[in-house]
Amino acid sequence: MRRCIEIAKNGLGTSAPNPMVGAVIVNGERIIGEGFTSPYGGPHAEVNAIQSVKEGSLLSSSTLYVTLEPCSHFGKTPPCADLIVNSRIPKVVVGLMDPNPKVAGKGIQRLRDSECQVTVGVLETECREHHKRFLTFHEKKRPLIILKWAMTADGFIAPESKKRTQAPQPYWITNPSSRQLVHQWRSEEQAILVGTNTVLQDNPRLDIRQWTGKNPMRVILDQDLKIDGNFHVLDGNIPTLVLTAIADSSKYINGINYELLDFSKEIAPQICDVLHRYEINSVLIEGGTQTLTTFIKAGLWDEARVFTGKSRFTKGIEGPSLKATLLNSIRIDTDILNLYGND
Q1: Residues at the annotated binding site for Zn(2+)?
Q2: Which portions of this protein are annotated as coiled-coil regions (predicted)?
Q3: Cα separation, 343 vs 341, whole angstroms
């Protein structure tokens, strides 16, 4: 099962909204097949594992290990449970049950009805951690929410506006290694979210140009549609969703998706509802302070990744206030990365 989890990570950033499952087929003491979930729309892990077996006759005396319950319904691909039955695999070991209502025990029951011996709950804790994005989406009806920001040694996430106006330039807080790591993180999540001020001040691209993989969907909070088509986030090169209070579609840009929020009410739960409707399993929220604080105050976050660089601004925009459990502290060259969890 540990090998299943290990190879399943190959699907990180590409399999969503499907879960990134890993499957291993064992005959005696020998692994004869392995597979992980293909990019969304492609074969599931069990299919890839079964197809990787060179001696098909061995399947009838083998055990299939899989991190998540095999699916039992027709989606973009046929049910994996049916393929397992038709392949005459006699034993299946499952990490944890699938919370998706379309499956939710039906895959296991399908196997058992066909006299397949099924064991459930092996390394369940590890499998839950591995499938945290998929599980949060189905169990909490929202995406896994990861907060990320960088602060100077004196606690600022950006210099004061006056300094930016007088001396326009990129005011980097973190070193190149940390910045590249952030691009890797972006490639691992389905969406990235920022507020209006971040776009107006920094004109970010919100892409993964320093990494390889799939760009996340850009989600922009823009209550009054202050951001025009000259900004990178509205260039149409990456799927983009704008959350706004403006219902006048004549102000919308072609190729950009728009959804209305009621900004007189708490917006964090509304954002979660919209992203859930878009089948977004995970979102990386990169700021600024107001946007991050909105999710912190609502208690709607799962992980926080906070860099502290060695530079100082003396004056500027202070970083969010976070009281949470410190899980780990990592040095990245001249930076410190603190990882927090929301209990």
Answers
A1: 44, 71, 80
A2: none
A3: 6
